[in-house]
Amino acid sequence: MTDDTTCSIRGCVRAAGIPLALVALVCLAGTVPALTAGQSTPTISIETDSVAAGETMAVPVVLTSAPDGLAGYQLELTVDDPAVARFENASYPDSLSLTTDPVISADGGTITLEAADLDGQIEPGASDVTLATIQLAGVDGGETQVTVASSQIDADGGGAVEPATEPTALAVSPGAMTEPAVAATEASSPASEPTAESAGTANAAGPTVDDSTGGEQSTTGANGALPIALVLASLATVAALAARTSRQP
């Protein structure tokens, strides 16, 4: 009877082992969504701020999370309206040991960035990873958007990361552009006014110079010189006649 009881207990343990395993699997399946929900989806964040026309601001480009680390990336960012703002330059953090020079389009509306983490500085589970810092310059007052046109991000081990992207609004105020323009105009006005005055003086003096050197005064001078010549000729004639008269006996 002891043997039968022992066997029945082992049988109960074996029989109970199947539902216990199922319960464990169900519990584990319930925890997986919770763990997944606790990990935020990697997102590329472009933290812009307002800027005045004629000024430049530094804008960080951030990967919000890197669950499997970061091996490297290539990004292409665009400004929807380059007449409002444009890319000037970009720099990379020291954690990225291999980088390429930023490539900017002729109109400043597109910039391409590429870098790699060869030293493993960005480990799995890292968050708020700065990929680059871009320089955005305000061109003219208005609003535009900065978007991620394309992205290729690799995790440690070569796995692909597909981050979420959203356009970022950028406001440019025209105040800082108009003030230097006014200052430039004011600075150029004093230089132009003397020029106008001197030109006016030259124009006023021109006729005076022409009158002084004109034919009227020279003609008057010539007319004044004619009577003097006649007087001298008459005196010479009288003197000659007087000399002849004194010589006669």
From TrEMBL:
Comp. bias (Low complexity): 178-199
Annotated Polar residues bias: 210-222
InterPro entries with a match to the protein in the record: CBM2/CBM3_carb-bd_dom_sf
Residue span of region Disordered: 176-222
TM helices/strands, residue ranges: none
Signal peptide: none
Gene3D superfamilies per record: 2.60.40.680
One annotated GO molecular function: carbohydrate binding
Protein name: Cell surface protein
Upper lineage: Archaea, Methanobacteriati, Methanobacteriota, Stenosarchaea group, Halobacteria
